[in-house]
Amino acid sequence: VWGTVERADSQVKITPHLVNAATGESLWQQSYVRAASDMFGVQDDVARATSEQLGALLATKIPATSVATRQKARGTNDVVAYDLFLRGQSLLRIRAVKQARDLFAQAIKRDSMFARAYAGLSEALAFYPQFTGSAATVVFDTATAAANRGLSLDSTLARAHLSLGLLYMNAFQWEQSGVHFRRAVELDPTDAAARLQLGRYLVHTGRLREARIEIDRAKQLDPFSGVNAAWSGYALYQAGKLDDAVAECARAFQLDSTNMIVLTISAFVNLGAKNSAVAVKYADRQADAPAFNGYTAYVHAVAGSKEKAESIIHRLEARTPRPAFGEMAIAMGYLGLRDTSRALDALTHSTDMRDPWTSVVPLCDPMYDPIRGSARFAQLLMRVGLELAVFVPPAGARCGGAS
C-alpha cells in the first residue's frame, strides 16, 4: 500500500494505491479531492476504501479501524497542526530538514500536546549535521529534549526512539543508540524507516549479516524508496555480490535521482565494482557541501583524477573555522590519494571536534584499508567507542569476516 498527497491552494488530493510488491503491478488506485480543512474526513474515507479493496483482493474481510482508533493514531484534533505535521513528514523523507523542522515547530505551536510533532522535530534535527552542516553537538540537547517530550506524551512513539538512536550514534554512544533503534522496531515493526536505521546502525557497528536482514525488510516494506534500494545495494556490495549491488544502485537512482544518499552509495558501489566512469558520474551529481565533498574527492582520487581530488581537499582546508564533516571530507580525499598520514591527521581532528565521522562511510568499507593496520587508527576506534576486534582483526579482514 502506498499513496500520494498533492496540494493546490485550499484543496488536497489523496490517491491511495494497492500494488503487487513482487511484480510492481498496480492493483487498484482512486483519487479523493477535498478541502484541506476536511483532512480527517478524507483520511477516514481513504482508510475505509483501502481496507475494502484489500479485503476483496485477498478474498477476506478486513475490519476497518474505528474512528476513535484513527483519531488516536493521528495524535491531534487540530486539522491545521496535522496538516503541518504531514507536510513536515513529506519534507523529512527527502531530507529537506530545515523546512521540515519549521513545519513541525509550527504544528507544536498550534498543539503543544502533539507527541508525533515532537518526534518529527527531533528526527529532523538528528539529520541536521549531515544535511545542513550544523555540528552534532549543537543540536543534540534540543533534539533529545524534543524526543523525550514526545515520549512523555506517548510512550509508544517509534519515531522518537528512532531519533534518539540517530542522536546517540552521532555522539559515539553506540550501546544507547542500539537500544533505541531496536525499541523503535519493536514498537512499529512495519516502519520501514525504523528498519533501515537499525540496519544502518548494524552496518556501522560491523554486524553485516544482521544488517542485511533489517535492510531487506525495510525494502520490502517500502519498495519504492530510493534510499532503501541504495542501502540494499551497499549490503550486497559488502557481501561480494557486485553485479547485484550495481543493479540495485541503478534501480535506486531510477527511483530517486537527486537523493544524496542514493548518489553517494551508488558512487562507492560502482567504484568497488571497477566501474570508475559510472562512479564519477554519480559523485559529480552530489551537493557541494562538506558532508558530500569527501565522497567526490575520494571517488576522483581512486578513479585517477588526482588534480580534482586535490582541488576539493585544498578548498576544504582553506575554510576556517572548519565546518561539520569538513575534516572527514579531507580525510576521505587523502585516503583516496593514499596519503595515510594526512588522512589520519584529519580523522584525529574530526574526532577532537566530536564530528560523527563514524556514521558517514562504514568502517567496514575498503576505503579504510590503507590505515586499517595502523596503531593510530586503532586509537581512534577506541576513542569513538568501537570494537577493535571487529574492524582491526588479527587476520586483517574487514569486520572480522562478518560479511
Word description of this protein:
- 64% of the residues lie in helices and 6% in strands.
- With 403 residues, it is mainly alpha-helical.
- Strands 1, 2, 3 and 4 form a four-stranded antiparallel β-sheet that branches.
- Strand 2 and strand 3 (26-29) form a beta hairpin.
- Helix 5 (115-126) packs antiparallel against helix 7 (136-153), helix 12 (226-238) runs parallel beside helix 14 and helix 19 runs parallel beside helix 20 (375-383).
- The longest helix has 20 residues, at 39-58.
The amount of beta strand, in percent, is 5-15%
Regions with little confidence, pLDDT below 50 for 5+ residues: none
Number of DSSP helical runs: 21
Helix/strand order, N-terminal first: EEEEHHHHHHHHHHHHHHHHHHHHH
Class by SSE composition: mainly alpha
Overall mean pLDDT score? Answer: 90
Helix amount: 55-70%
The main pleated sheet reads as: 4 strands, antiparallel
CA radius of gyration: 22 Å
Q: Calculate the terminal CA-CA distance, rounded to whole Å.
A: 32 Å
Strand and helix layout:
Layout: E1 2-8, E2 11-19, E3 26-29, E4 32-35, H1 39-58, H2 67-74, H3 79-93, H4 97-110, H5 115-126, H6 128-132, H7 136-153, H8 158-170, H9 174-187, H10 192-204, H11 208-221, H12 226-238, H13 242-255, H14 260-272, H15 276-284, H16 290-303, H17 306-317, H18 326-336, H19 340-352, H20 375-383, H21 388-391
Helix pairs in contact: 3-4, 3-5, 4-5, 5-7, 5-8, 7-8, 8-9, 8-10, 9-10, 10-11, 11-12, 12-13, 12-14, 13-14, 14-15, 14-16, 15-16, 16-17, 16-18, 17-18, 18-19, 19-20
Descriptive labels:
403 residues, 4-stranded antiparallel β-sheet, 4 strands, 64% helix, 21 helices, globular
